[in-house]
Every structure is written in C-alpha cells, then in structure tokens.
Amino acid sequence: MKKYRILTLLLVFIVLAILVVARLTRVSAQQPAGSVKVTPTTVTRVILFKVNPGQRPAFDQDVMDNLIPVFEEEKKAGILTDYMFFNNVTADNPNDWNVGMTQTYANYAALDNLGDRTDPITLKHYGSAVKQQAAASHRNQIRTVVSNRLLREVHYSRGANGNS
User: Fold this and answer.
1) Residue 113 in 3-state DSSP?
2) 8 Å CB contact between 47 and 100
3) Is 161 part of a structural domain of the chain?
4) Where are the beta strands (DSSP E) in the chain?
C-alpha cells in the first residue's frame, strides 16, 4: 500500500512540474519581443480588372482621357498620394484579371468623407453628373472588376532595444 502512495505522489509531482513548465513557457511566448517595431503607413486600394476581349484600346483611352486627369487633380488636392496601373503577365486562367490599378492614400483618415472631396473634382472633369454616369456605364461595358481590396502597408524596423 505504501508503494502505491509513493507512486501516486510521484505522479502528482510530475504532473505539477509539467503544468508549471507549460505555464512559464506560455507566459514567455506571449510577452512582446520589444525589438521589432511595426509602423502602419499608407492605405492602398487595389482594383483588378478583366478587360473584355477587343476592348483594350477603349480601356486605355478611358484611362488617358478620364482616370489619369482625375487622379492627377486628386493628387494636387492632397487626396491621393499616388496611383498606378499595371498588367498581369502571369494569368492563371482565361478569366483571370489582366489589368490592375492602385490608388494610395496617406492613411485611413484620408478615406473619411472621400466622396465629398472627390465629387467636385470628377464633376468638374466630366462637366455634368449625366456625362459622369455615361462614362461610368461605358467603363462597365469594356471591363469587369475581378477584385477590389484595401491594403495597409506596414514597415518593420528594430525597436530601441533591438539589434540593428
């Protein structure tokens, strides 16, 4: 009987030791490293389009005549920090996107009341709400939006206590 009691105490001790070690390991894993600093920066809208067959010249003309002039005015007004267009050269399938566009803003606050700040610029460019709507309808006939994402860029650096 004494033998079983010693064995039971030994097992209890081992289980307690395992629990203590597991607890210490979990606490140390949850503590922040302190040496890595993550700084959020710009916010970028990424829109991927599938230009309809035979409509690439019309798409490119719309970009030159309408999108770039509006984006340039938005940059002058401090709304956009940058914009970019790009092509997909590694399509996964025939229905994959083939043209992309980004619009970059300084931060999330730049998206507050965005329409109130961009509407006067686009209205001035098109001349009237009717012409603006007609251009949007035409744009929807020549391409399809495949994806529309909002990305937050982050920069990694060493913190004050980290190694360089």
Assistant:
1) coil
2) yes
3) no
4) 36-51, 82-87, 99-105, 143-158
| Alpha-carbon span 106 to 102, nearest angstrom | 13
**Do residues 122 and 143 both lie within one domain?**
yes
Same domain, 118 and 138: yes
Query: What is the extent of the structural domain holding 106?
Result: 40-155
* Mean of all residue pLDDT scores within the chain: 88
Strands 99-105 and 36-51: antiparallel
Give mean pLDDT, residues 26-43: 73
Confidence check: pLDDT of 113 > 60: yes
Closest by CA position to 132, among listed 52, 82, 51, 67: 67
φ, ψ of residue 149 to 5 degrees: the values are -125, 150
